[in-house]
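not sure who needs this but someone in the group chat was asking about Putative gamma-glutamylcyclotransferase from Aspergillus vadensis so here u go. i didnt clean anything up, its just raw.
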Amino acid sequence: MQNKTPHTQEHAKPPLPPPPPPEPFLTRKPPPTPLLPFSQNNKPPHPPPTFPIYYFFYGTLTSPTQAARILDLPEEPALRKAEVTGYTIAEWGDYPALINGNGGQVVLGSAYLVKSEEEAEKLARYETNAYEVVNCLIFFKDGEQPDEAEGKVFVYAGDAQALVERRFDRMLWGRQMGGRVGL
């Protein structure tokens, strides 16, 4: 007996090609994002500023004497009366701490035209790692020009909600300051 099953090339489907190998970036897990000290969220760092650029001061640095000491200036700097909006002040131990507020809130202070990266680094050392430098819009209140400028400000980088709720741990604060109180 003959086999009656027809076997024709027309009905056979060609085999599917093998799938391409996965792209290398899809097979590797990205490295974990390092946790930054005091960072509430792991936002990418702000690009370094170009100088000169205004910095807004709201606490001890509003004193020209204190600013001259921190910046190691031969004389007191010219500070401009200024304000920023969208922030508020909370108490962080013995210091005022700028935290995010609502759009209508205003913080009064002063602004200084930081002339170099060296001056910016001196300010950052003074403020410690408890603060991060962020972009802001500064509104000048002295009648001089410019009447506003994009600038920088130090914002508290810790748990702002704890400050709002007045949950303050002096021992933790001391560790966060790293013994750098009252520079």
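also Residues 117-127 form the longest helix (11 residues). if thats useful
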